[in-house]
Amino acid sequence: MQEKWTLTKPRGTAITTELPEPVNAAISKLYEAGFDTALWQEGLESLCRAVGAHSAVTVPRIAAENTLLLPCTVEMEDFLKAFVAEEWYRRDLRAERGWPLVDAGRPVVLEQDIVTPEDHAREPLYQDFYQRHGMLWWAGITFKSFDQHYVVSLSRRPDQNPFDETDRRLFQALTGHLSRALTMAERLATATARGGLSTLEALDCGGILVNARGRVIAVNAQAEAMLGDGLTIAGNRLLARDADSNAILQSLIGRTLRDGPQEEGAVAIPRPLRRPILVDVLPIPAAARAPFLFGKALLVLADLDKSPVPRETTLIRAFGLTQREAALAARLAEGLDLAEAAARLQIGRETARTHLKSIFHKTDTKRQTELIALLQRLSARLG
């Protein structure tokens, strides 16, 4: 199943591991993937061949529907799609029983550590799902990067032998390599993301990139300039100083990370003696993920104090807005949310939504922060 490997202790050093050549080659591929994440799948496939596994996937501890976007071997792709589509992640015995063992100090968890033959015989997860996909035996190699806890999940088919104690010792020797490789990938991805965030500055917008846990991993210069009396970053999280606004902001970030785009749009963060900052939360789609690796959502900030509110006549002339649409756009540019703007204009909220959709269409914008940035630039040029 695999080459013999041994632990040796050179004079004056700690114990080191002499890995079999196929495993060394696979680890080298994963180190390369630290500099080019497109190679991570190739590294996992090499690791599978080296240890006699059928398939593998790298999973952060904080993961749910975004499982579809995780690096995995080709054999794992259909499995992951079905795992999410059929909602098996809601009853993932391996995660439920495995992570407590990891927390207790066991970095490598095998199938037999957490599941009994009776579980195999009676649990729908095994009878209806794992057997169908031919992935019965499992091993989890856990490790930490700079910012996250991960597991490389390895699977074997029912006609293969389970992972055993020899495998466990080998896998324990790999945890440090995996940690260093993925930490490098995270750091390089963060540097790349900062470059991607700089494009927002051309739109006069602040940009803050957060990971799957809502922790800040990159901030552009515009966003840094907006931090202070209304917003701050503490504990690697963007926080509003106003308690009510912060509760709304954290809820919006959490729901966007979990469920995708939210209908209510941006949050107005009040500031003493100044107009608010608008914060919009946008999930990063897979197609746009390349510059923002490890980033799951983009917080877009618009400073309403940066330029005057555009005149309604200017909006009518520039975009063909109706009088009511121009009035609503101007109120939004003042920092009111949609409900407040509707109340100010004495119109119903649904009517305001209809007007806002028309404003988005006529201005070729999609989100409130994007609209505000456009109106600010227009006001600066035309008044």
Automatic annotation (TrEMBL):
Upper lineage is:
Bacteria, Pseudomonadati, Pseudomonadota, Alphaproteobacteria, Rhodospirillales
* A Pfam family recorded for this sequence: GerE
Please name the GO terms of the biological process aspect recorded for this protein, alphabetically: regulation of DNA-templated transcription
Give every HTH luxR-type domain span: 314-379
The UniProt GO MF terms for this protein read:
DNA binding
Which PROSITE patterns did the record assign? HTH_LUXR_2 (PS50043)
* Gene3D superfamilies per UniProt: Winged helix-like DNA-binding domain superfamily/Winged helix DNA-binding domain
Q: Which domain of life is it from?
A: Bacteria
Its keywords, alphabetically, are: DNA-binding
This protein's name: DNA-binding CsgD family transcriptional regulator
